[in-house]
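Repro:
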Amino acid sequence: MSDCLSGKNTTPDRREKIHDWDVFTALILSTWIRRFTSDNTAANMTAEQWAAVVTAAFEKGTFDRKAYETAYRDILRPSGGRLLNPANFYPVSLLNGCLNIEAEEAFVEWLITQEDGIYYIYTVTLSKSFPKCLRADRQAAFWELSNCWRITVAQEINLSMWLIGLKQTGN
């Protein structure tokens, strides 16, 4: 994976056209490399770039789509294709420990209320229908990721209440 990320090797997959292939594969490879080690310069650089994009998107405390798109294009420099949604397993996993506390809190809060869930993990709004909507493996995947984040006590209480159906979000 490290050789593919650094360009010494190529991935065995065909190049997709929906997203910028280089941005997409750097995200995927960096995410998996960082799940095993934090000592990979190229993967850490990808994480820093994504952290800057997400931080810009949440600079005002809530998700700003225009700021996300601008930062995405300025920092990641895609050569075309659709922009990747940050409510996706790869950015969520990659950014563990990379965001400042304000951006991280806003990001986690935003993730909990996403209508379409987190891509590759679950496909409904977590705060409305968890746990009825999720299979056990999807629940485990979400909890594995969420346990990596510095969730505040208030967020943990709110998340717990949402999970057992005692609290509804504004959505």
